[in-house]
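REVIEWER CHECKLIST
Item 1: Sequence provided? yes
Item 2: Single chain? yes
Item 3: Sequence as submitted:
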Amino acid sequence: MSELCDSSAVELRRLLSAKAISPVELLDACLSRIASINPAVNAVVTLDEPGARTAAKAAEAAILRGEDRGALAGLPVLIKDTQDTAGMRSTYGSPLLRDNVPVADQGSVARLRAAGAIIFGKTNTPEWAAGANTRNPVFGATGNPFDPMRSAAGSSGGSAVALACGMAPLASGSDTGGSLRNPAGFSGIVGMRPSYGLVPSEKRIFGWSNLSTDGPMARNVTDAALMLSVMASDDARDPLAYTLPGEPVRARADRWSAPHPADLGKLRLAFTEDFGFAPTEQAIRRVFRARVSKLAPLFAESREATPDCSGADDAFAVLRAGMFLATHGKNYKERPEMLGPNVRANVEEGLGYSLEDQARASTTQTRIYRAYQTFFANCDVLISPTITLSPRPWSESYPAEIDGVPTRSYFHWLALAYAVTLPGHPAISIPLGRDEAGLPFGLQIVGPRGGDAIVLAVAASIEAAFANDAQLCRPVPDLARLAATPPLSAAPGFLTWE
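Item 4: Structure as written out by the authors:
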């Protein structure tokens, strides 16, 4: 069932530039794939077909005239439904915004469009991106492309599933506690959390907080780098996008668009199953150890080690709750019935904390950041599993236990991701075969402070090393089976709150 829409973004750009294909033809391929596969997984929740066709025809005319419209000219791109798109419904998975149509793109979307991307649809997300199980009462659940009754993780679950199923070559996501990396791990695609400030955002309610960032998602590392080259920018509206007057510190496409392969044989590798605290199930630990045995010989040296992340659970919980309180506190007081259980739980948790708690969390975060700096003085790259467990049914709001041990909160199972969110280091999830259940296994690669280019280079080299290994290459869902699968909307509990 391989078609044009399954090709890489880089290859599609080459074909478009050579006039071997047209943007209209490529858009039609993506729309056709969505029509045949999306009912089974519910990844794409809004389409603007008329607007996309107009943009595709304009891109086609520009290519025929020999005009260079940007790095993404003619490529169809899907946008996470928590990111504003001009003239296209943006609901955030919330009944409060069921009919919301923004008048302007948010900054990261505007940069994609300015680079020639054809923004043609929105992908599903949990309500207000709260949680890592992509379900909401507006559009329902999103199913895993390898088993639609299992979770796609989140909160960028719709984007990850759409990419895995060939509905678009690129899709956007965002990440606080792993929302770019976790769904990438569950769906067998690539999701990168950049260093804070690299992809600026004018929307973060806590401008000086590094917890949340937008980022790229793709089917391979080079495509993710291409997308990052467009999303990276300087923007005075984001206080973390530090810059030097007159110098484009971040918006240099040559730094990101084509990662140079890393010479792994000169690099020091560290690996950890749990960062010393994440509740990682034994089945995932076994798969990870097997992957380490394949990876370690590629590096100059390797050792099992982790930065000191003590206190990470508490610090992330407090800092996250503060963000939810600031964002949703007013609606919680005025119309709590319009908020789902995850959002309400975070707001209520925030109301229960004191300034002393905030001080403790911020101090812990700073200590963890400094521990990372000490740690990376003695290694070049750190790897871990992307996510603590194999995909479970989406009917389970969140994993209440892992290997029989209760989890501390609805997001505790994301600890492998927020262990990296807190210090703000760049990280990427790449697919590396399947786990013991036959579902995708994601490898998280973490780089040093500001080492986004290093992360991309290492990820590209690992990807290339196993590209022809049937056991370790990127798994691909059975599209023919999905096309014959009954619509996910018929499943019990499809359209509910978490």
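Item 5: Key structural point noted by reviewer: The CA atoms of residues 467 and 473 lie 5 Å apart.
Item 6: Recommendation: ____
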